[in-house]
Design brief:
Elements lengths: L5 E3 H7 L3 E10 L6 E10 L2 H6 L9 E6 L11
Antiparallel strand pairs: 1-3, 2-3, 2-4
């Protein structure tokens, strides 16, 4: 079923530990706009792979998340 593909952010964090994910979000927090649940469209340890998959979003609202430890001396340029 369609709903089987919808995961909460915590489920994604468990499943895709250490990876970047592109999420077609289905629910966000109305105040913080943080993604609460959605469908993972792409995932990879390499952020460039995930950004390159953008066309599969087909105009849906997406968010990019990294589930892993980011060292304090690392900065990401999006």
């Amino acid at each position: 079923s369609f709903m089987a593909n919808i995961l909460t952010l915590n489920e994604m964090r468990d499943r895709y530990d250490g990876e970047w994910v592109m999420i077609a979000y289905t629910e966000t927090d109305p105040e913080t706009l943080e993604v609460l649940r959605g469908e993972v469209l792409a995932h990879s340890p390499n952020s460039q792979d995930v950004y390159a998959a953008m066309p599969i979003a087909q105009g849906r609202g997406v968010a990019f998340e990294f589930f892993g430890h980011i060292p304090e001396n690392v900065a990401f340029i999006l």
